[in-house]
Task: structure prediction
Amino acid sequence: MIRLHHVPQSRSMRTLWLLHELGIEFEVVQWPFDKTLRSPEYLKLNPAGRVPALEMDGRCIWETGAITEVLCERFPETGMGRMPGDDERIDWLIWVHFAETLSQHVAALTQQHLALYDDAMRSPVVMQIEAKRAAKCYEAIEARLEGRDYLLDSGFSAADVSVGQAVYMARHFAPIEPYARLADWYGRITARPGFIASLPISDSERLYTRDYYEAWEA
Ligand SMILES: N[C@@H](CCC(=O)N[C@@H](CS)C(=O)NCC(=O)O)C(=O)O
Result:
């Protein structure tokens, strides 16, 4: 039994998309994005009170990077991973984990724009810096995609899922249109049925109620 604990439009969507790409059977338990993630019941799944958490083979795994590695090793025939010994193993690992470099800025921006409930708590400077740092991450992706359709020469993999999902969240704060190769790649990977199946089913599930949140003027 594989069971994903998930909040729509959060990092657990990265694991949901990967599970769809793997084409395996799994269950989803959906949680609200609130203090319920700090309940004793949820803390048994992930002691940090974060999503995702993945129940598999009699234990629970957390941290998206770890989950991605474990799933790709468990189902090597799907071709989503690059195993030890593969020429592209190191690049695969770099890009799988680079998703968190971008996501840390998205987390800060989500806190600034959505989580803080009073305008006096928000900082235009933090909003602007974090959006610029997210765009710096786009520059790294743009450079990597020169002469490539996907992050690896050998084609689509869990590295594209990981970074692609981070870009999906980051687009709410930093537009991708100025980055031509990134925008093309993003269009290509998000046309996949696996990505579409990982989107929120209804508007009421959305964490981000707007497509774009502009940084305030400092
Ligand atoms: N590095 C962790 C980050 C997990 C994380 O922070 N998830 C966010 C959702 S995107 C969360 O659960 N936040 C709830 C909270 O901070 O209370 C991972 O990659 O799994």
